[in-house]
């Protein structure tokens, strides 16, 4: 299936190259200056890549070159999850981009990932953020993982036609949450495509608190809740024996929640409390809605959230007309930019498709893989991710090359890590939430830097 798709796309790409190309295309996307932006020495670009000119489907991107010597730095694609949440609003403006909205302007993020790489943020799938399908006046068609992977592959090819100087650059793909589906599936297509025509210089992928195998990932929530004192012993027993979380989610999206699952989940919700943010169980409740990525993973959590913050500065900033003009962005079929799309019609049961097996196939192709976990996240807890990594490493016969140990950021423990075969690694980010670069920016930058260089995480300060 993937090979057939790759051959089809190869033909499409060859045809597209005839009519699209040239370095001048990038100039029209250059950002002169964002409103309220402090002075910087690096270039920024944003705009659209049309996927299908006949149907007028387009994906929106934001690209920031590395602060120092961008010619020598790799290219990194960042994807947020959801599915349906914005890499622009969450990734770029709340996590690891160069700026954070503050009042009427922007302030520098001193731990921006563009200190280490050229960062490309993509609003995907079509219907997310500023990305659009102008042919769908009656509503968006159902989008699947397969469609998303295909569109992302087409985007990257056409983006390289705008920025040909980056085509041979070392490429890494990073992201979090449901990007545990997006990234491996995209990388798999890239590998198959390269067997016909070498285009993508993919070196590695990094997956933060990712959905890789939904039963393991979701069911580890019970252990996390119990070990952190969020639920009682009796509720933990019910949550692991009568109705685990993966069963509840499967029933919920099939509109067939059983009485026992309804009872168990009601009890879990009552004890964990709606005044505790499940993405960071130790943080106080004032968490901007911009960090919510619970479209599939936590189907009822959106209605349970208590947002005591007066305003969401990222949402306000990206809905300003002068900001949209500076970004070359348009609102198509929506009245305002949203953090997580309200118009995207995603095939929710795709969450049941495992991607951990794809991770294994990528490792066999020589692509480095990092799975990391913010250890304060109960949505996709570290227990499930660590178990999946260890199980896959064992199945593949990968020897432990870095034993489980602490790693350091400065003079403090940054987390714990283990590495297999010098190609596959797991790491926790101590004190980090579901969105690790937001809650622990300095530690996340150390993790990112080590990943790009292929070095083990620091074992001393």
How would you describe this structure to a colleague?
The chain has 461 residues and is an alpha/beta fold. It has two domains: 1-213 and 313-461, Alpha/Beta hydrolase fold, catalytic domain (Rossmann fold); 214-312, no CATH class. The chain contains 16 helices and 15 strands. The chain has helices at 2-19, 24-27, 87-96, 145-162, 179-194, 214-227, 233-241, 245-252, 259-272, 301-304, 313-318, 321-327, 356-364, 382-395, 436-439, 441-453; strands spanning 44-52, 57-64, 75-79, 99-102, 105-108, 118-123, 132-133, 142-143, 171-176, 202-208, 345-346, 368-374, 400-409, 412-420, 424-429.
Radius of gyration equals 21 Å
Largest sheet: 11 strands, mixed
From the 3D structure, determine the CATH topology of the largest domain.
Answer: Rossmann fold
Strand content: 15-25%
The total beta strand count reads 15
Residue share in helices? 25-40%
What is the number of helical segments per DSSP (H or I, 4+ residues)? Answer: 16
CATH class designation of the largest domain: Alpha Beta
CATH architecture of the largest domain: 3-Layer(aba) Sandwich
> How does the helix and strand content classify structurally?
alpha/beta
């Amino acid at each position: 299936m993937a090979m057939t798709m790759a051959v089809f796309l190869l033909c499409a790409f060859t045809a597209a190259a005839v009519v699209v190309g040239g370095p001048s295309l990038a100039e029209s996307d250059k950002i002169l200056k964002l409103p309220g932006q402090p002075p910087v020495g690096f270039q920024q670009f944003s705009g659209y890549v049309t996927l299908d000119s006949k149907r007028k489907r387009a994906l929106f991107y934001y690209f920031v070159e590395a602060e120092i010597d961008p010619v020598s730095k790799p290219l990194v694609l960042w994807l947020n999850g959801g599915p349906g949440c914005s890499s622009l609003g969450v990734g770029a403006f709340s996590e690891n981009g160069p700026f954070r909205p503050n009042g009427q302007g922007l302030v520098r993020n001193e731990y921006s990932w563009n200190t280490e790489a050229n960062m490309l943020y993509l609003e995907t799938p079509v219907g997310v953020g500023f990305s659009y399908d102008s042919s769908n006046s009656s509503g968006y068609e159902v989008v699947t993982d397969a469609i998303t992977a295909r569109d992302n592959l087409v985007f990257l090819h056409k983006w390289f036609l705008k920025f040909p100087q980056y085509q041979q650059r070392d490429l890494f793909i990073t992201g979090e949450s449901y990007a545990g589906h997006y990234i491996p599936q995209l990388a798999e297509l890239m590998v198959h495509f390269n067997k016909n025509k070498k285009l993508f210089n993919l070196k590695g992928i990094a997956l933060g608190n990712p959905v890789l195998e939904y039963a393991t990932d979701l069911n580890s929530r019970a252990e996390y809740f119990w070990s952190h004192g969020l639920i009682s012993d009796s509720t933990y027993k019910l949550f692991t024996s009568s109705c685990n979380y993966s069963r509840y989610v499967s029933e919920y999206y099939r509109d067939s929640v059983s009485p026992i699952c309804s009872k168990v989940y009601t009890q879990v919700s009552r004890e964990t409390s709606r005044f505790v943010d499940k993405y960071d169980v130790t943080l106080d409740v004032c968490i901007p809605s911009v960090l919510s990525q619970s479209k599939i993973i936590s189907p009822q959590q959106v209605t349970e959230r208590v947002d005591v913050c007066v305003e969401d500065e990222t949402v306000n900033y990206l809905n300003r007309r002068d900001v949209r003009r500076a970004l070359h962005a348009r609102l198509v079929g929506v009245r305002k930019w949203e953090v997580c799309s309200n118009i995207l019609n995603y095939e929710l049961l795709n969450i049941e498709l495992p991607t951990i097996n794809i991770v294994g196939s990528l490792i066999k192709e020589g692509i480095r893989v990092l799975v990391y976990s913010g250890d304060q996240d109960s949505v996709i807890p570290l227990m499930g991710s660590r178990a999946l990594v260890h199980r896959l490493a064992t199945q593949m016969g990968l020897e432990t090359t870095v034993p489980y140990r602490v790693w350091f950021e400065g003079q403090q423990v940054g987390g714990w890590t283990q590495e297999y075969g010098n190609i596959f690694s797991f790491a926790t980010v101590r004190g980090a939430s579901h969105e690790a670069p937001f809650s622990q920016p300095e530690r996340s930058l150390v993790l990112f830097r080590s990943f790009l260089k292929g070095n083990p995480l620091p074992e001393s300060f």
